[in-house]
Specification:
By secondary structure, this protein is mainly beta. It has no helices and eleven strands. The strands form two sheets. Strands 2, 4, 5, 6, 9, 10 and 11 form a seven-stranded mixed sheet that branches.
Length: 112
């Protein structure tokens, strides 16, 4: 059974930082492309960042130079470091495993 469990969301002021983590089980983590999606109220879910099994990363233009995705294959965990957060980054963030699905999501709210 695939399980993707996110943590690290919360409320942060504009300009602040958060680090999201996703612990995966039930998949061959080291061989799976992982990523983070987000969905804001009234909007479609969108891919924020992804990382292949070989470590190649890709980012949505709006988060380039602010967000960093990384993975620890020994711990079956993928991370999303988010810096210089903006109110428009407010959304539910979902961990994603290619061809396997999403986690339950963690809320990120950027507000003063």
């Amino acid at each position: 059974q695939v399980q993707l469990v996110e943590s690290g969301g919360g409320l942060v002021q504009p300009g602040g930082s958060l680090r999201l983590s996703c612990l995966a089980s039930g998949i061959s983590f080291g061989g799976t492309t992982m990523g983070w999606f987000r969905q804001a109220p009234g909007k479609q879910r969108e891919l924020v960042a992804s990382i292949t099994s070989g470590g190649r990363t890709d980012y949505q233009d709006s988060v380039k130079a602010r967000f960093t995705i990384s993975r620890d294959n020994a711990k079956n965990t993928v991370f999303l470091e988010m810096n210089s957060l903006k109110p428009e980054d407010t959304a539910v963030y979902y961990c994603w495993a290619r061809f396997r699905g999403w986690g339950q999501g963690t809320q990120v709210t950027v507000s003063s």
